[in-house]
Amino acid sequence: PDGKVVCEKRDANKDECLIKSDKIESVGGVVITEEGEDGEKKIHSPNRNRKRTGSSTEMAVDQLQASEKLIAELNETWEEKLKRTEQIRVQREAVFAEMGVAVKEDGITVGVFSPKKSPHLVNLNEDPTLSECLLYYIKDGLTRLGTSEANVPQDIQLSGSHILKEHCVFENKDGVVTLVPHKDALVYVNGRKVIEPEVLQTGSRVILGRNHVFRFTHPEQAREKREKNKEVDVCETPGNSGEIADWNFAQCELLEKQGIDLKVEMEKRLLALEEQ
């Protein structure tokens, strides 16, 4: 009468219990019995072995798949390995391009390198050590520039109080890049405010908002110029005796085009200080 529930395993998938006690409770397919003199309750799950069997099967399948993958990699020819490596390199370059970072042709060295074909923007900074540290590619078709808060994802994302959510668009068609500013956007090209579409030439200085200064570089145009005139460098500004188009040059150019002569202003300030 006061016996136990004895479970015997009849086959691999089924447990049968020989009931020797009437003190049995069943909850959701789980058998609870009282055993021993102190009436201690123990739980017997008919599906316990099934779960163990299932987990073991899954582990065996995973190991089998891993072994098949390893065998497939070992059986690959050198041509197939080279092709797969090239695909990985192309994917990596695409990711770096979205981040504004270039990868050298050897596929190993990572840094800021001027690409040989793609037109791009290179940053200019008041601190020379921070200049030319970022490249922003101008892809074929439309390249949108704005902030991360724009409704439409922007290809180039900048921040700042004077950068609109959708600031401007670069249209690259047949090797010709056109800058199209949005309404009320602060955009300057070579010191002149732009409100209509403007075709960019290699070496052009582009100022977006108040603080973002770039130099536009088109490798194809630069190559053509060098062929016509060996003395013209992509970093030089035509008509300025080879003066380097850096951040200071872009700022002075902006002030001059707005009718402000920086040298005259500095002289006025010096005179005012001397009079004091």
TrEMBL record:
**What domain of life is recorded for the organism?**
Eukaryota
For this chain, one GO molecular function annotation is: ATP binding
Chain spans, region Disordered: 32-57
Where is it localised?
Cytoplasm, Cytoskeleton
Asked if the Swiss-Prot or TrEMBL record annotates the protein with the keyword NADP, the reply is no
Q: Which InterPro entries match?
A: FHA_dom, Kinesin_assoc, SMAD_FHA_dom_sf
Q: Where is the composition biased (Basic residues)?
A: 44-53
User: What PANTHER family does UniProt report for this protein, alphabetically?
Assistant: KINESIN-LIKE PROTEIN KIF1B, STAR-RELATED LIPID TRANSFER PROTEIN 9
| Protein name (database record) | FHA domain-containing protein
Q: Which organism is it from?
A: Anopheles maculatus
Organism classification, top ranks? Eukaryota, Metazoa, Ecdysozoa, Arthropoda, Hexapoda
